[in-house]
Design a protein that fits this description.
There is one protein chain. By secondary structure, the chain is mostly helical. It has a single domain, classed as Winged helix-like DNA-binding domain superfamily/Winged helix DNA-binding domain (Arc Repressor Mutant, subunit A), CATH 1.10.10. It is built from six helices and three strands. A three-stranded antiparallel β-sheet has the order 1-3-2. Strand 2 and strand 3 form a beta hairpin. About 15% of the residues are buried.
């Protein structure tokens, strides 16, 4: 005789405040990613492309390897994203002045425009997140998230 298990909604049971902290962080991450995917869908951009463009604009000339570390994506995934962004005319690759095999990435005007459209969509999602806490709480959460990354990841 098999018993059907009812999966609790977010916020209930082990998916609520009494759940494991790592699970709750992952649950929140998945929810943010899904909201970002939805927000970016009609402009044909993915959260990963948004992250890549954001870092290329923030750090012009970044290499693919550096980009992988900055975006928490694998080098293979970065290669696919970069190839698609180059094909779409949103970024350019140039050889490093000293190490010719190292490619430096920069955003084109088209890439800057796409990033601006993406940011306005993502800011709506981030506004919803920030709205769940007051300003002081938000600052504390930001500090805590950074501290977790420093303590556990060292990145």
């Amino acid at each position: 005789m098999s018993r059907k298990i009812t999966i609790p909604k977010a916020g209930e049971g082990k998916r609520g405040p009494e759940g494991h902290l790592g699970y709750l962080v992952r649950q929140a991450n998945v929810a943010v990613r899904a909201a970002m995917e939805k927000a970016l869908a009609d402009i044909d951009a993915t959260p990963a492309q948004f992250a890549v463009l954001t870092m290329i604009v923030a750090y012009p000339g970044v290499s693919g390897a550096e980009l992988a570390r900055l975006t928490f994506l694998t080098p293979q995934t970065i290669n696919v994203i970069v190839r698609n962004l180059v094909r779409g005319g949103t970024i350019e690759k140039t050889a490093h002045a000293v190490h010719g095999r190292v490619l430096r990435l920069t955003a084109t005007a088209k890439g800057q425009a796409l990033l601006k459209r993406c940011r306005s969509r993502v800011q709506e999602v981030e506004g919803r997140i920030a709205g769940l806490a007051g300003k002081d709480e938000e600052k504390a959460v930001r500090r805590w998230l950074v501290a977790v990354a420093e303590e556990l990841g060292g990145r």
